[in-house]
Design a protein that fits this description.
The protein is an alpha/beta fold and about 600 residues long. The chain has helices at about 5-50, 55-100, 135-140, 145-155, 160-175, 180-190, 200-205, 210-215, 215-235, 245-260, 260-275, 275-290, 295-305, 315-325, 335-345, 345-360, 365-385, 440-455, 490-505, 525-540, 595-600; strands spanning about 395, 400-405, 420-425, 430-435, 465-470, 470-475, 510-515, 545-550, 565-570, 570-575, 580, 585. The strands form 3 sheets. Strands 6-7-8-4-9-12 form a 6-stranded mixed β-sheet, sandwiched between helices. A 4-stranded mixed β-sheet has the order 1-5-2-3.
Length: about 600
């Protein structure tokens, strides 16, 4: 029987708790729904019966009593449904958390596939995006800006050690706030069904309608409804008052609405498109504002959630939400036509929107960025909570440093993960790693690369301890041909190696990861090419790991002018002639190979 971790037990407990709440809420929702139908049928039917019996007084009393009760039940039913949906999200979040720990996260829908970039220095090789990627593993963002921020952290990690340390503290604090993180995530998932770029909303919020904003035009817009109603009242109260005046004023209003239809429609379309998202932003900001934070990064972000007049961001977003709901009157075409031509309803809303933009329009962008940053940091916080034995790396100011105890691949399940120690520092240091097929060379290179990306993102690493300096990362591992550009796999690899060498010439701290160098050419050319690449990179003063089947490259360790060390992975054979790998890094050059054995194993005859 599988033994659960403390984190798994917590997720299980939460999932079952929310399931019970969900069922209880469902029962109440169904009960209210039935009562609502009963009230509607009995109340309004009784009112109608007495009305036709000409007992208008009793009919009116029943109708007057039934209507508010019915409306109350409708509102109550709607609120409970929202709470029920929220609870459903919490159930899903805890189930996904269990899946993440058990290794089933590879089935999560959002893989970040659209971020895959073959030209990036390392993202393809280190499985940053796509199926089975770092992004798929940790991403819990719900907003467009949140996803973009997480993408940026993984593709362009921070190079400022002070900022990374600040992020580490923020991530550590959020890792302990499980309840807060789950509620923040659940609220984000409620209304944001499809992630959408808010650029048009932000552009709209920062653009004040200059025509309507002119004082005399604003004064006329505010004054016209008063004149309209005064002329209508005068017509009914004063027998001699000509009807042409109220009709003329209403016609004037109609002309103004007709002339400004396109402008008003643009405003409406922008706000209406983001109606649900605006409501979600408001709730997310409220959740941040209500929480107490200790770390400097989180506290500073929370402190920015005010406008120039000292109003909370959530209050301001709530005002915007109410304005958007007010503008939704346009969906009721007949009622909107009447009200709009009596009081210039659309223009009144635009004036109010302009006032809101002046107070908070320019701040909306920063508020949404704060939501995004909390989402991104929460994604990294999951790593620490789910893996309490993983440690925060020590970032050092040395130019080249990388050492770790029990370093493992973060994306491998604990049962499959084999950890290794690593210690090599100094400019020009290169590890040449040899070993048989499937022995673990490629996985080890990815282990180093992925953990460095996590370290620079402020996240914990899959290690007992780790010390590293800030280095750019370049890799050449998964190199394929490109038929569209008529590029063979060997030429594609040459281009990647060229990119690495060109980067090394910039004299910036750099770590390279090269797997099975020049596998696409003959052994003689491969050896000459690989030897020259290693020497050039060592001369350039960069640090790196290079795996190869070419055992002759091991001789470079003897050349004192280069800082090259040999390591290898090995295999062994059991009594029944089965191959076994220990996936452990050993010093020296590999002394074994298994290509012939593997050919025989799959049924290829070898003399």
């Amino acid at each position: 029987m599988e033994k659960y971790t403390g984190q798994q037990n917590e997720y299980l407990k939460r999932r079952e708790k929310y399931k019970k709440i969900y069922k209880s809420q469902k029962r109440i929702i169904n009960l209210i729904s039935n009562i609502r139908i009963l009230i509607f049928v009995l109340g309004f039917a009784a009112s109608a019966i007495f009305f036709f019996m000409k007992d208008y007084r009793l009919s009116g009393i029943i109708f007057t009593l039934t209507l508010p009760i019915f409306i109350f039940l409708v509102i109550k039913h709607g609120n409970l449904k929202k709470k029920n949906e929220f609870t459903c999200q919490l159930i899903n979040i805890n189930q996904e958390s269990l899946d993440r720990i058990s290794g089933k996260w590879v089935d999560f829908i959002d893989t970040g596939q659209e971020y895959v970039n073959k030209e990036h220095p390392y993202s393809i090789d280190l499985d940053i995006f796509g199926k089975g990627s770092v992004f798929q593993w940790i991403n819990i963002t719900n907003t467009y800006l949140g996803r973009e921020r997480l993408k940026k952290s993984l593709l362009k990690p921070c190079k400022d050690i002070k900022k990374i340390r600040v992020r580490q503290k923020a991530i550590m604090e959020l890792s302990k706030k499980l309840d807060w993180r789950q509620h923040f995530q659940a609220e984000g998932r409620l209304n944001i069904k499809n992630v959408r770029d808010p650029s048009s909303l932000l552009k709209w919020s920062e653009n004040i309608d200059s025509l309507v904003d002119r004082k005399y035009i604003a004064f006329i817009i505010r004054l016209l409804p008063i004149i309209t109603f005064m002329s209508i009242i005068a017509y009914f109260l004063l027998p001699s008052f000509p009807i042409i005046i109220p009709l003329g004023v209403i016609f004037f209003n109609l002309m103004i609405n007709f002339l400004g239809y396109k402008k008003v429609n643009r405003e409406f379309e922008t706000t209406s498109a983001y109606r649900n998202r605006i409501a979600t932003y408001q709730k997310l900001l409220e959740i941040i504002e209500e929480e107490e934070f200790e770390s400097m990064d989180l506290s500073n972000m929370k402190a920015k959630l005010f406008n120039t007049k000292g109003k909370l961001a959530s209050q301001q977003i709530n005002e915007l939400k109410e304005l958007v709901e007010r503008m939704d009157l346009r969906y009721n075409a007949v009622f909107h036509f009447v009200i709009n031509n009596l009081v210039l309803w659309d223009y009144q809303n635009i004036l109010t929107l302009n006032k809101w933009k002046k107070e908070s329009g320019d701040l909306l962008r920063s508020w949404l960025q704060i939501i995004a940053e909390f989402e991104e940091l929460s994604s990294f916080a999951i790593i620490k909570y789910d893996n309490p034995d993983w440690e925060m790396p020590q970032l050092v100011k040395k130019t080249y440093a990388l050492s770790a105890l029990n370093l493992g691949h973060p994306l491998l399940h604990k049962k499959e993960r084999i950890c290794n120690n690593l210690n090599f520092s100094g400019a020009g240091n290169i590890l040449v790693i040899t070993g048989s097929n499937m022995s673990g060379k490629s996985t080890f290179l990815r282990t180093v690369g992925v953990n460095l990306i996590l370290a620079y993102s402020g996240a914990p690493v899959c290690a007992q301890s780790m010390e590293c300096s800030i280095m750019d990362i370049y890799s050449s591992m998964r190199v394929n041909d490109n038929l569209e550009k008529s590029i063979s796999s060997f030429y594609a690899e040459l281009l990647r190696i060229k990119m690495i060498i060109e980067a090394a010439k910039k004299k910036e701290p750099m770590l390279f990861l090269i797997d099975e160098i020049f596998r696409g050419t003959n052994s003689k050319d491969r050896h000459i090419g690989a030897e020259n690449v290693i020497k050039n990179l060592s001369k350039a003063g960069v640090m790196g790991l290079l795996s190869t089947h070419d055992l002759e490259l091991g001789k470079l360790e003897k050349e004192k002018r280069f800082k090259i060390k040999n390591y290898h992975f090995e295999e062994s054979y059991t009594e029944d002639d089965k191959i076994e790998f220990d996936y452990k890094l050993h010093p020296g050059v590999s002394t074994t190979s298994n290509a012939i054995y593997l050919m025989k194993m799959i049924g290829i005859e070898v003399d």
